Amino acid sequence: MDYVIVIEKANDGSYSAYVPDLPGCVSCGDTLEEAKELIKEAVRLHIDSLRRHGEAVPNPSATTDTVHAA
Fold first, then answer.
1. Please, what is the average pLDDT of the chain?
2. Which pLDDT score is estimated for 59?
3. Which residues of the chain are under the pLDDT cut of 50?
4. Has residue 31 been placed in a domain?
5. Are 17 and 7 in contact (CB under 8 A)?
6. Domain tally, the chain
7. Which of 5, 20, 26, 39 is the most buried (most CB within 10 A)?
8. Is residue 67 part of a domain?
């Protein structure tokens, strides 16, 4: 399953990431690359936790697009 992740850069230069389809699945890192790696691990752990607790694993449904602003 491929989940959309959202990564945002903070004013201090760090990055935070979250997964719209997995509420509560978040991570952060000092670099973009670190944030990407850590959110991958967070997704794995989040799904493992849902399964261990007998909860449904949401199917990916979020999509992305961009808007050009003049």
1. 97
2. 97
3. none
4. yes
5. yes
6. 1
7. 39
8. no
Q: Measure the N-to-C terminal CA separation of the chain; round to a whole number of Å.
A: 35
- Residue 6's nearest CA partner among 22, 55, 30 is 22
pLDDT for position 10: 97
The whole domain housing 11 covers 6-52
Helix/strand/coil (H/E/C) assignment for every residue in the chain: CCCCCEEEECCCCCEEEECCCCCCCEEEECCHHHHHHHHHHHHHHHHHHHHHCCCCCCCCCCCCCCCCCC
Containing 58, the helix (H) or strand (E) segment is none
Single-letter amino acid, residue 15: Y
Whether 59 is covered by a domain: the verdict is no
Q: What's the confidence (pLDDT) of residue 70?
A: 86
Residue type, 53: H
- pTM over 0.85, yes/no: yes
